[in-house]
């Protein structure tokens, strides 16, 4: 008999409300979800147990999302990442597109709804 393990998703965001809402949505869909407050915490969690997908905010203390994407893909080139952000900085600079350039599989602008989150998660997971 073959047992399939649940899909594991790591969510990193310094905003407790975003972490909790994302956790609730994904767990309700049957995903195994772990959360982190910043990039350093997510890296530790990923090293302990790799995930099928990472959702990371781009503006976090300690290790921001762009740095996290670079470090994660350097150590784990197979990592699948969705970058999340509520905006850019310095006018023309769009950090979500920078995240994609660094290797994020997709980008998600905040605020986002349940349907958009799940659509994107499913799309990136089908690229496995």
Salient structural properties:
single chain, 128 residues, alpha/beta, Rossmann fold, 5-stranded parallel sheet, 5 helices, 5 strands, 42% helix, 19% strand, globular
Full CATH superfamily name: Response regulator
| Number of discrete helical segments | 5
| Largest sheet: number of strands, sense, barrel closure | 5 strands, parallel
CATH architecture: 3-Layer(aba) Sandwich
| Amino-to-carboxy terminus distance | 23 Å
Query: Whole-number average pLDDT?
Result: 91
Question: At the third CATH level, what is the topology name?
Answer: Rossmann fold
Cα shape: globular
Radius of gyration: 14 Å
**What proportion of the residues is helical, as a percent range?**
40-55%
Describe this structure in words.
33% of the residues are buried. Helix 2 (39-48) packs parallel to helix 3 and helix 3 packs parallel to helix 4 (95-102). Helix 3 (65-75) links the parallel strand 3 (53-57) and strand 4 (81-85). The chain is an alpha/beta fold and 128 residues long. The chain has five helices and five strands, in the order βαβαβαβαβα. It has helices at residues 16-28, 39-48, 65-75, 95-102, 114-125, and strands at residues 8-12, 32-36, 53-57, 81-85, 106-109. It has one domain (8-125): Rossmann fold. A five-stranded parallel beta sheet has the order 2-1-3-4-5, with helices on both faces. 42% of the residues lie in helices and 19% in strands.
């Amino acid at each position: 008999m073959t047992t399939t393990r649940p899909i594991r998703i790591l969510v990193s965001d310094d905003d407790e409300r975003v972490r909790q809402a994302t956790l609730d949505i994904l767990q309700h869909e049957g995903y195994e979800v772990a959360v982190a407050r910043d990039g350093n915490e997510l890296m530790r969690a990923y090293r302990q147990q790799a995930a099928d997908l990472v959702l990371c905010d781009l503006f976090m203390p300690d290790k921001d999302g762009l740095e996290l994407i670079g470090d994660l893909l350097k150590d784990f080139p197979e990592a699948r990442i969705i970058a999340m952000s509520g905006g850019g900085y310095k006018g023309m600079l769009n950090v979500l597109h920078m995240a994609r350039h660094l290797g994020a599989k997709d980008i998600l602008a905040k605020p986002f709804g349940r349907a958009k989150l799940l659509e994107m998660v499913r799309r990136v997971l089908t690229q496995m």
